[in-house]
Amino acid sequence: AKITFITQDNISVVVEGQSGSLMALAVENGIKGIDGDCGGVCSCATCHVHVQADQMQLAGEASEIEKDMLELDDNVSEFSRLCCQIEISDALDGIVLTVAN
Ligand code: FES
């Protein structure tokens, strides 16, 4: 799937991934602002992204654990997700994620 990350510097980076988490893909591609400090176990929120409003159904809803974690982070919105909790699949093709500040 083709995934677009918009970094904190407002640069769009298009990357391609087949499987694994969006966080791992972002880290592999050096996407600025996605650190993945906890290794993808939903306990650091350094992989916080905002999904485009009209693409929320692609990303799906955050789990309760994820929501609890997000609440501790700044700039949380109804479009927030922790991208380590999103598995890459063909269904995500074209999704645009803005890295949270
Ligand atoms: Fe730590 Fe996603 S990488 S919460």
Features:
5-stranded mixed β-sheet; 101 residues; iron; 22% strand; ubiquinone; binds FE2/S2 (inorganic) cluster; alpha+beta
Annotation, overall tally of beta strands:
5
Determine the fraction of residues in helical runs and give it as a percent range: 10-25%
Please report the first level of CATH classification, the CATH class: Alpha Beta
Which term fits the overall shape? globular
Strand neighbour order, sheet with most strands: 2-1-5-3-4
Number of domains: 1
Low-confidence runs: none
Give me the number of helical elements: 3
Termini separation comes to 25 Å
Q: Give the helix/strand class.
A: alpha+beta
Describe the largest sheet.
Answer: 5 strands, mixed
The molecules bound to the chains, other than polymers, are:
FE2/S2 (inorganic) cluster
InterPro entries: 2Fe-2S_ferredoxin-like_sf, 2Fe-2S_ferredoxin-type, Adrenodoxin-like, Beta-grasp_dom_sf
GO molecular function: 2 iron, 2 sulfur cluster binding; electron transfer activity; metal ion binding
Cofactor: [2Fe-2S] cluster
Keywords: 2Fe-2S, Iron, Iron-sulfur, Metal-binding, Ubiquinone
Descriptive report:
A hairpin with a 5-residue loop joins strand 1 and strand 2 (12-16). This protein has one domain (2-99): Ubiquitin-like (UB roll) (Roll), CATH 3.10.20.30. It is of the alpha+beta class. The N and C termini lie far apart (25 Å). It is globular, with a radius of gyration of 12 Å. A 5-stranded mixed β-sheet has the order 2-1-5-3-4. It has helices at residues 22-28, 56-59, 64-71; strands at residues 2-6, 12-16, 48-51, 80-82, 95-99. The site of FE2/S2 (inorganic) cluster (FES) has 13 residues, from loops. Keywords: 2Fe-2S, Iron, Iron-sulfur, Metal-binding, Ubiquinone. One of its GO terms (molecular function) is 2 iron, 2 sulfur cluster binding. Pfam families: Fer2 (PF00111).
